[in-house]
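Title: Prediction job returns without error message
Component: structure pipeline
Severity: low
Priority: P3
Assignee: unassigned

Description:
Job completed but the reporter wants confirmation the result is attached to the right record. Sequence as submitted:
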Amino acid sequence: MRRPPAVPPPGAEKGVLREARVLTALGATQVPHPHCYGSCADTAVVGAPFYVMERVAGWAPNLRDEKIHNEPPFNAMPYEYGIPFAIVDGLIALANVDHEAIGLGDFGKPGKFLERQVNRWAGQLASYKERYGYEGRILEGYAETEEWLRYARLPDEVRGIIHGDVGTPNMMFHHGPPARLAAMIDWELSTIGDPMIDLGWFTGGLRDEEDPYKEFPIALNNPANLPTKQELARYYCAGTGRDIRDFEWFSILAKFKSGCLLEYKVAQAEAGILPKETGRFFARIVENCFRETAAQIARQA
């Protein structure tokens, strides 16, 4: 059974029912997901909206370990290398679903999804002043990135289902090699928009063929054991018919989003909510996000 916590954050109850709806709709597709047996909006039953889903057989990554991919033989080469491809197989299946045909035509806001993204994350960054009294700081590369995302050629928008939080922790895999996706889980952020946004987010921490010497000091899995982001983008485009040239925009948007989101840790540290050391740690991550996007943009000039 899945339900909001006892003290739910804003929107949690609505999110549970949205998740139940998308899982039910996906029952008519080949997308790996847990089957939804039913949902209930009546809070009198268990104290909150809830749904009941299938218990999926397989293994799930464990973030408490030193490695996310902690299931033998997937914790070592060559089997670890196939895990991202298995996840992208799921993204390909999801991108190829006709969302209107399975009853999700009204699941997201209509039109201009990509144009709204820049406003959303720039607005998130600006909101820290009101929420934490944070005056902000000059972030090298931020202005160039925001301008490029707003005024560079937007990809031709494709409408489809977005998972919203694609990453190894939200996946379950079948036991035994080769890597095969058993289920994509945690759909509470799903919506309708351009599905390539999931690929940009998922590949943000992988090696870049255009920046081969980049180091990953805090990676839980050695990126050298995983494909490059371009390898996965080519694989995704081959399976969906998308234009590989569009991927750069989604890759830069993902870094922009990460930087805007993680700056809240810096804001909280300045407000005394978090330790100063934590603020300095995340400050460096944010700075790297915008430096990297500015460098990506410069390479295209």
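Comment from assignee: result matches the submitted record. DSSP finds ten helices and six strands in the chain.
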